[in-house]
Every structure is written in C-alpha cells, then in structure tokens.
Amino acid sequence: MFERLGRFVVGKAWWVIGGWLLAAIAVVVTSPSLSDITSADQESFLPRSYESVQATELATKSFPQAATATATIVVKRSDGKPLTPADEARVGQLAQALKARNIPQTSGYLTGPQAVAPDKSVQIISVGLDADTPDDPKLLDAVRDLRADLGPDLAGSGLTAGVAGDVASFVDNEDTFNSAFAVVGVATIILIIGLILIIFRSPIAALLPVVVISVVMSVTTGLVAAAGKAFDLNVSQDLQTILLIVLFGIGTDYILFLLFRYRERLRAGDDKRTAMIVSVQRVGEVITSAAGAVIVAFLVLLLASLGFFGSLGPALAIAVAVMLVTSLTLIPALVSLLGRWVFWPSKAWQRTPKASLSRRLGAAVGRRPAVVAAASGVLLVALAAGVLGYKADYDFSAGFPQDTESARSAKDLQRGFAAGALAPTEVYLTTGNGTPLTDQQVNDFAAASANAPGVARVQPPERSASDPSVARINLLLDENPVSNEAISLVRDDLRDDLHAKAPQGTKALVGGPTAIFADINSANNRDLSVILPVAAGLIALILALLLRSLVAPIYLVIAVLLNFAATLGATVYLFQGLEGKPGVTFQLPIILYLFVVAIGTDYNILMIARLREEAREGHEPHQAAAIGVEHAGPTVAAAGLILAGTFGVLMLAPISFLQQMGFAVAIGIVLSAFVMSMFFVPALTGLIGHKAWWPGHGDERRNGGGRHAEPAPASEAQV
C-alpha cells in the first residue's frame, strides 16, 4: 500500500503539489474564522449536573442586572495609618465623582461603612463592569479609564488607591503575556531552524518544516472552524496556541522521520526517486500508526465531562490527520523534486558516520539489555514516585509578577478583609417552586452561614428584584479562594454544611469561583480516570495491529504510562519541592496527556518498528536492538530534542504556569525519547527476544535479504 502511494506521489509530484495548493486556497477562502467558535467562559464547559453551574444559571435568571465582572478600588492612607472618618467621607465623594463621569461599561460604585476594613486599613469601592462577554476588550478600557481618574481625584487628600480584580490583573499582565508569547514564538522558530541546521547542515532542510507547517496551520484552522460550525462545537481561546504547538511538534517529527530515512537510502546508493519511494514504503506505516495513535488519544477526549476537553479532542485530531496526509503526500513530493539539494550545501549526507555515538549506545543496549532495562526502569520509577506529593494549584494570579497595581491592591485588600474578599463564595437560597422567601428565612440562613466551616465574614443578603423566591448571600472565606485548601473546603465540607443549614422548604446552591474550581477539580479527576485507561487500551490495539503481536503492545503501553507518571513526578520535585510552590497548575495532567502520552508514543512506534525491521532482516534479538538503536536513535534524538526545545522555551516566560508547562512537557519528551525509546524499550525487547512478537511472529526473516543487500531498482523496491 505505502509502496504504491510512494510511487504515485513521486511520479506525480507536480500534480500533488498543485492539488495541495488549490485545496489549501479553497479551505482558507471558504472556511469561517476560528474566533466564531471560540468561548472564553470556562464555566460553560462544565456539565449542568454540577452545582456551580446550576447556581450560575439561577443567578442569571434572578439577578439579570448583575455585572459581567467587578473591579475593586482599594483606597488607603499614603502614610499607612488607619482611615479617619474624614477619609471615609472622602472615599464616598470619590465614588460619587467617578459615577458622575459615566465611564463606559461601569456601574454601581458601591461603598460605605460596610466597605471599610475592620482594622480601618482600607476602604473599597465595588464597581460593576458590564459587557456582552467576559473577554470584551471594552472592560479593559473601563479599568484603564478608572485608573486615569483616580490620581487627579485624590490629589492632596493623603489617600492613594489602586484597582484590583481579574480584569485589572489582565490589564497589568497583558504586556507580559504578549511579550512572553512573542519571545516564545521567535525562540521556537529559531530553535527549530537552528537544530535542523546543525543536524543536516542545510538551510533548505531547516526551512522546509517551517514553511510547510505554516501552510498546514492555515488549512487546519479553517477545517477546525468549519467542523465547529457544522457540529456546534465551542473551543477555548487557547486552541490556536495548542494547534500551533501540536502541528510544529508532530509535523517536525514526521518530516524528520522521512528525511533521516531518505538520507539513509541515498547513502545506500538509491537515486532520488527510488530513495523517496522506499522511504515512504518503510516509514509510511510508522507515521500512519503513530498518527493513528495520536488521533485516537485525542478523540478519547470526547469521553471527558469537561466540555473544554471534549471540543479540544476533535480539533486536535483534525490537525494530526491533516499533518499525516501532508507527511505522506506533500513532503515526499517536494523532497523527491529537490533530491540531494534538500541537503545542500552539505556533503556530509554522502558519508555514513564512523563510530558514532548512536552506534556505541546501540552496542551497549545489545550487549547488556538487562542492565540497561533495569537502570532506565528504575530512573522512571524513582521520578514517578513524586506523583504521591502532587497538589493542584488554581491560583493563576500568584504566577504573574507581584509588583503590579492589581497585585499590590489585592494584597492590601486581603490584609484588611478576609482572604476571600476578591472572590466571594456565592450562595443562592431558593424555595425552588416560586414561593417567596420570607425575610426570616433569609436572615436566619445568613446568620447560620457565619458559623459554616471556613467562613470569615458574611456580606448582607441581596433579594432578587425579579424573583422573590431567590436571595443571594456572599461569603468571604478565611482561605485564599483559589487555593487547594479553599477548594477542598467547599467541595468536602462547606457545601454540605450550607445545604443542611437551609431553612425548611428551601435549598441552597453554592456557586462562585471557588465552587467552580471545586467542580472542575472533580470533573478533571473523573476525566483522567476514564481517559487514561481508555486511551491506553486503544493505543495498545493500534500497536497490536501494527506489530501483529499481543506481548509488545502491553509493555509499550506500560512504558508510556510510567513515563507519564515520571514526568508529573519530576515536575512535582522541582516546583513543589525545590521551589516550594503550593502545587503545580491544575491543567498540567491533561497537558501531559496531550503532549507526552499522545505524541511521545510516536517515538516508541518508530523504535519498535525499526527493531522489527532489523529482526526481519535476520538479526537476533540482541543484535536487532543494537542496530535499531544505531539507526533509529538519531531520528528519535533529533525529533525529541526539537520538540522538547520547542516547549522548553516556555520557561523563558515570566509567568509561572507557562514555566511549569514548558518544563513538564520538555522533560516528558526528553524521557520519552532518550530514556524510554532509546534505552528501556529496545533493551526490554532484546531481553524478551522472539516472545515479544507473539503470536504474529512479526520478526520472522522475509525475502531472504540482509540489511546490506543491494538496493532494488525503482521498479523492484522491496521492504
């Protein structure tokens, strides 16, 4: 099959390239924009069965006038002394003056005695921010306008003020985000080009992945947007970045798989057409199986209860499918036309390296497979032990620079009030049947809530103006509202306690940011417990079909899962252990699933396929392991180094969760390529021997040819 595909692509190279260009133009011109299916509301990705979502739906109906977001103006004396009655009156005047200016997208400007901290250190003004969506750029402008007016209004008063809140934090860190992604983007391109230049010493080979993948990115974005429109899928704003990383990651890998094999065939004496036909024939099955495993792993995300993962899976599967077709058609067509010029001006491709590092490593694996398998396995297990200390961190603000106005104001607020002042836990009391709540029911519940676990302060109840059966009571927790302690408190104790405290004939629904994160935590744990075993089973099935074996897929999948645990454990050791962080970003396990389990499987498939190929050419298991590492090792090393480096540049960003993501995926890919695929898998395969291929006997010698047999002409190319 792949030989016929190779012959067609090489024989009709110009037609293939022309067809690709026409198809790309058609997709880009006719497809909708990706922004049309993008949603910024993370809560909307939770199923309705979760209590925080039900609370939000009730709030939307009963408090339709509620602001989209809130900005909190924190006022204090510049000399650090407690506020005086005159200062409090001045803050009230400030609120009225700001309200009179009618700053677009703002409303409310609430302050008063209840807005003064118990220790008189600060007084707050709560400002409602109104927009159609939480990510409307007009909200950022509203915060900027508020800040511009604060200075002149407080001049000569002895008071200073700052604006805190999520929108204010975004304003402060917008430049940080933009500069971080600019640095990461430039560093990624430079890294890919630089490393391929070092490997092949050719600017053409170095630019080929960048140019082709850029085109593929446009096509993929269009197809994903079209699929989203057709199947009513909403995706996160992060999708564009994730698509870029996935395409550059797997795209560069697949192109390197082909280029390394193409160079090997040229060295063996094939002409440029025959070399590409044989390369597609021998690597095509590997790339297809690897892409199939990644596609399956991504589609398993459809089983997730979190809508973000469910919509992300098909989008990434489309991206991998497009890259698969590209790798088997467009790349072979281009390279077959370029021929030896793809490695210009270097002539090193003509010479097989003598006493190379990969040859020495292969010899070591083949000579002592038991020692190599044990050493690499112990390393992975030792790192995996770090998972036992894993804690999720939901506090994004702590990962940003702490010298901004929003960060300083938030600290002032939390010192004066409860730790949860910026993100109250919202409790909705309702009869559920439309019967009006009595004042006694509302007041009794508010009073009882003050004694609930972890509650530092209860704000005055609010009655719904449109629905007399609903009231809202905001609770300020005594813990950081996005800390693990607060999330565990809401999930395990506070909710149940508040449910029990609801007066007879009423029920309480707990919402707000902490409750949302508590539900995301539950959903995330559930999803990983489903996704990982299902993906492992399906990847094992693909490996079984590729290798015609039941034994090898078992230890290959175990190796992948062990590598996942080792990666997470290494990240815990660094950030929670050495750096003393309260946890690692809660998104990390699913990110590692995407980029370590799914994409890291590519290297296993490449290596195991080469081991089988060497066994088929008559080599005994130990010798096949040695030769397999010698010839597939450089490909795995180069692909792993480039992909790890691509993620590693995220550590240049001054944002904690980007640094954690960069380190975790980079170390995961390094472990996948240089420990699992280079040592553990070939050593274990050599140790198990012929039994690794049971019951299909995929290692049986075929066609009676050794690996040093003369290459067949183009019309008689054999596997």
Describe the protein's architecture and organization.
- Helices cover 62% and strands 8% of the residues.
- With 719 residues, it is of the alpha+beta class.
- The strands form four sheets. Strands 8, 9, 10, 11 and 12 form a five-stranded antiparallel β-sheet that branches. The chain has a four-stranded antiparallel β-sheet with strand order 3-4-2-5.
- β10 and β11 (470-477) form a beta hairpin.
- Residues 699-719 are annotated as: Disordered.
- Keywords: Cell membrane, Membrane, Transmembrane, Transmembrane helix.
- It holds the Pfam family MMPL.
Structural class: alpha+beta
The overall strand count is: 13
Major pleated sheet: 5 strands, antiparallel
Tally of separate helices: 22
**Low-confidence regions:** 704-719
Helix content: 55-70%
CA radius of gyration is 30 Å
Strand content: 5-15%
What is the residue-averaged pLDDT?
82
Which term fits the overall shape? elongated
N- and C-termini, Cα separation: 11 Å
In short:
This protein is α+β, with helices and mostly antiparallel strands and 719 residues long. Helices cover 62% and strands 8% of the residues.
Features:
4-stranded antiparallel sheet; 8% strand; 719 residues; SSD; transmembrane helix; alpha+beta; transmembrane; 22 helices; 5-stranded antiparallel sheet; 13 strands; disordered C terminus
Could you outline the blueprint of secondary structure elements for this entry?
Elements: H1 2-11, H2 13-30, E1 38-39, H3 51-62, E2 69-77, H4 85-100, E3 106-110, E4 123-129, H5 137-154, E5 159-164, H6 166-200, H7 203-231, E6 235-236, H8 239-267, H9 272-299, H10 307-328, H11 330-338, H12 357-367, H13 369-384, E7 392-393, H14 405-416, E8 425-430, H15 439-449, E9 455-458, E10 462-463, E11 470-477, H16 484-501, E12 507-511, H17 513-547, H18 551-578, E13 584-585, H19 588-598, H20 601-616, H21 621-648, H22 656-688
Parallel strand pairs: 1-6, 7-13
Antiparallel strand pairs: 2-4, 2-5, 3-4, 8-11, 8-12, 9-11, 10-11
